[in-house]
Amino acid sequence: MPRKSGTGCVTCRIRRVKCDEAKPCCQRCITSKRQCDGYLPGDSTVTRRQLVEAVRELGVIGPVSKALTQYPGQRLSPSQVDSLSLFDVFRKLTAPSTASFLPSNFWTGELLQLAHSEPAVWHATLALGALHQKHELASQGAGMDHRVDVFQRLANQNYAQAVTHAQALRDPHRLLSLSLALVSITNMMGRWSESQVHITAGHRLMLQAKGHPAVKLAAEMLMRLDLQALTFSESSAPYPYEEAPDMTDITKCMRAAAIENYEQAGTALFSLVRRFLLADEAVGMCTVEQVNEKLAMRDILQDLVDWEFKMAIFEKDGPTGEPAAMSVRLYHALLRGMLAARRFGPDMRYDDLLGYFERIVACAESLLLAIAAREPRSPLSLEPGIIIPLFVVGSRCRHPVLRSRVIRLLRNINRQEGMWFSDGAAEVCAKTMTIEGQTILMGDLPPLAPIEDIPWEAWSMSRVQPQTSLSWEGIERVPEIMRVRETLVLVTTEQRRIDVTFIMSSGDDIGSYGGTRSESVTY
């Protein structure tokens, strides 16, 4: 009879140290910031020497235990090598690039740990790795490469297996984490209805897992992905505003006594943006009494002021210079600009927000420079990043210089952030510009003004108007009747086509909707 080799995790056994055998990852590995490679089955007879040889042969990073369940009976099959390579892509590229804007231990920690012990999560990470590889090829101009089809097939297969294995999961917290991965997969695939199903399931699971000590991180991530769905709202699966939960637990978390890190600051700010958009839509649809919505807006503004004062304390020694510091400034400028625009009135009211629009673009450009200097350099994120704020500017700002700058930037960065494709957003903005009678400016554009250092507490003490290097002098303004009020999109990712319904302004003084115009763009 072969002797048993021990019961510690693969990493500790190779290192010849005592393992605490915590599941799914041992605390010794976590404390020493090592990758815990999981546990072999209880009846495994693999010795330490065999483990060392197998890991050397494997040559990739991942939960090694999954590749060694049949060792040493046979060599790794091609499918096992493919799987570990895809996990390696997720671990080394997808998760870190997603966390490059705002720190998130969900993608870089929690989901990786669950992949060790949950087959459904394992296959979900493989699907994301395959989709990341496909996007990398496309972003490098290799869209016709046969490997694109291979990675799409692997993504489809692993997504189907993740859904199948999910039926055996019973723990609400683990199911919630899995649902976030499934949302991200379907976002990248362009399966909007399925994405909405997973988002809805996530909200339901969050309620079931309420009180679970580990649910906070997943709940915060659900809020970020929900904000992404809210801003995208594709016409075949429009965002269900009337059924949207208020995510009270996240709001309470946001009202903590102090901000301790940028992850907390970003989550709180995203929560405020989401609440504003929901309240703004409710006012427009008249779904609740106007007085209640006024109170909701008042509460949002008060929470924003509180957040700004906490940020002033958190950054009392100045911002750290990391990308997250610029990320919160980007979304703060977006929210302050939306509040300054007010809900009602003609679309020409946006012409008074040049300072806000320029600040948003300057923050986005600075953020791109900051992440370009870091590893990994990847044009993909599963969470909201810079595309949403830039699309708002490209849609609402009618100054031809700034609008042209945004469209050219979106075309050049070739990014995907969950549901949002930068080149697709660029073409919708470009078509909007054409419909409104403007032309994209070519050649060199004037530089933007440096990002003004406005103290956090100053935003609430006076009516702040961010500085701008631009003016309307000598610029012909788009007449109200020619302006696009809203855009509704139907996105077909396989054909890279967007069918757009443009809802025009009526041209009156109160901002009523006019006629519609249908167009298609490709990206």
UniProtKB/TrEMBL annotation:
Pfam families: Fungal_trans_2 (PF11951), Zn_clus (PF00172). The keyword Zinc applies. Residues 8-36 form the Zn(2)-C6 fungal-type domain. CDD domains: GAL4. SUPFAM superfamilies: Zn2/Cys6 DNA-binding domain (SSF57701). Keywords: DNA-binding, Metal-binding, Nucleus, Transcription, Transcription regulation, Zinc. The keyword Transport does not apply. This is Fungal-specific transcription factor domain-containing protein. One of its GO terms (molecular function) is zinc ion binding.
